[in-house]
Amino acid sequence: MGAVGAVALGIFCLITSELLPVGLLTSVGADLGVSDGTAGLMVTVPGLVAGFCAPLVTVGAGRLDRRWVLVVLIALMAAANLVAALTPGFGVLLAARLLVGVSVGGFWAIAGGLAVRLVPAHHVGRATALVFGGVPTASVLGVPAGTLLGELGELGGWRFAFAAVGGLGVLTLVALLLLLPPLPPTRTITFGQLPALLRRNRAVRAGVAVTFLVVTGQFAAYTFVRPILQEVSGVDAGYVSTLLLGYGIAGVAGNFLAGARDPYRTLLTVGAALAVILALIATVPGAVAGTVLLLAWGLVFGGVSVSLQSWMIKAAPDDAEAASSLMVAMFNLAIAAGALSGGLAVDGISVPAAPLAGAALMALAAVTVRVTSTSRTGTGTGPGTGTGTDTGLGMGKAAGAGIEGLADPREASPADQR
Fold it and tell me: Is residue 418 part of a domain?
C-alpha cells in the first residue's frame, strides 16, 4: 500500500495547491491590489487549464511509463508554487497558477485509475478511497494550514504559504520515486477514443453531466467561503482557518463513508442535501448556524470525488483511464466555471448570491440523477433499451438506461461496450 499512499500524497499536494487561494483571497487581493472577485481567478485559471490538460496529458503520455509522468507533473507543480511565492505582481501569479492547472489535470487523470494496478482486486475499492482521500484531506490540512500560514505576517504571509506547498511538492516527488513501481501503459489512448467513449457509453455521459453540475455548484460557493462566513454568518476572521479545518475533517469522514457505497445513490443524496445546506448558509445569520452548516457541507461534499471516480470505473471498466480523464476534465472545468460564476455573483450582486447559485446547481444535479433513474425504471426493458431521445448528456430514457450499468457495467448493451 506504500505506492497507493504515495499517489494519495500526490493528489493531496495537488488539490492543496489548486485550492490554496480559497483561504488567501483577501490577503492576496489586498497585497496585489485586486478585488476578491478578481483574486478568485487564482482558482478559475488552474481549474480551466486542468480541464483541458486532463485528456491532453492522458493521450500525450502515450507509451511513457506512468511513474515518470507523475513525477514530472509533481515537479512542475512544485516549481510553479515557488514562482508564485516570489511573484512581483498578479499577472505572474496567474501564470504560475496556469502551470499548477497542467499538473493537476494530468496527474489526476492518470492517477485516478491506478488503484486497479497497484493492489489486488479485492482491495481496489479501499485503495481508490485512499487515493481520493487526498481530496478532502487537502481541505483538512492543506487549505487551513495555508490559510494559517497566510495570516502569519512575520513569516511572509501568503507568499510563505505558496512556498510551503512547493516544498511539500518536492517531498512528494521523492516519495513517488521511492515507492511507486514502474507502470508501463497497458494501452495507448488516441484523441478519437475520448469522444467515441462519450458517444457509445451513456453511463459515462451521465457521469460527466453530473460532475459538471455538482462541482460547479460547489465552487461557486466554496471559492468564497471566507467572505460568506465573515459577512453572512458573522464569524470572526481569526476563526475562519479553524472552521475550514473542521470542514475538512468532516470531508474526510464523508469520503470514506461514500467509498463503499453505490455512487448513484450517494450523488443523488449529495445534490439534494447540498442544495438545502447552501441555501441556508446564504440566508441564515449567526456564527453557530454558520458553523453547523459548514460542517454538514464538508461531510456531504466529502463523498463526491470518490463517488464520481467509482461511477466512471464501473461505467467503463475496460477504459478506466480514458473515462477518468473525461471526468477529471469536466471536474476541473467545473471548478473554473464555479469560481468564475461565484466571482461574478459576488462582484455583481452580493456575497450571498454565490452560495445561492451553488444551491440551484446542486438541485439541478439531484434532479438530473433522479430523472435518469426514473427513466430507467420506467422503461422496464433492461439496460440500453430506453426509447427516449439521447441528448448526448445522458438525459432522458436512453441515458437513464445507461445508469443501470453502474450496478454491473458488464451487463450494459453491446452498443455501450463495443
Answer: no
Helix (H) / strand (E) containing 295 = helix 287-301
What gap in Å lies between CA 390 and CA 316, rounded to an integer?
A: 19
Q: Is residue 335 part of a domain?
A: yes
Cell (9 digits) for 24: 488567501
Residue 416 placed within a domain: no
| Tens digits of residue pLDDT in 197-255 | 888 888 888 889 999 999 999 989 988 888 888 888 888 887 887 888 788 788 888 87
CA pair distance 356, 309, nearest whole angstrom:
27
pLDDT band at 121 (very low <50, low <70, confident <90, very high): low
At 85, which CATH number? 1.20.1250.20
Rounded CA gap, 328 and 58, in Å? 11
Q: Looking at the 3D structure of the chain, how many domains does it have? A: 1
Cα atoms found within 13 Å of the Cα of residue 129, Cβ hemisphere only: 17
Measured CA distances, 23 to 78, 239, 285, 316 (Å): 19, 12, 21, 36
How many Cβ atoms sit within 10 Å of the Cβ of residue 66? 20
User: In degrees rounded to 5, what are phi and psi of residue 150?
Assistant: -65, -20
Instruction: For helices 158-179 and 2-19, give the axis angle rounded to 10 degrees.
Output: 160
Number of C-alpha atoms within 13 angstroms, CB side, residue 29?
17
The one-character DSSP state at 396 is H
CB atoms inside a 10 Å sphere around CB 413: 18
- Mean pLDDT for 83-97 is 90
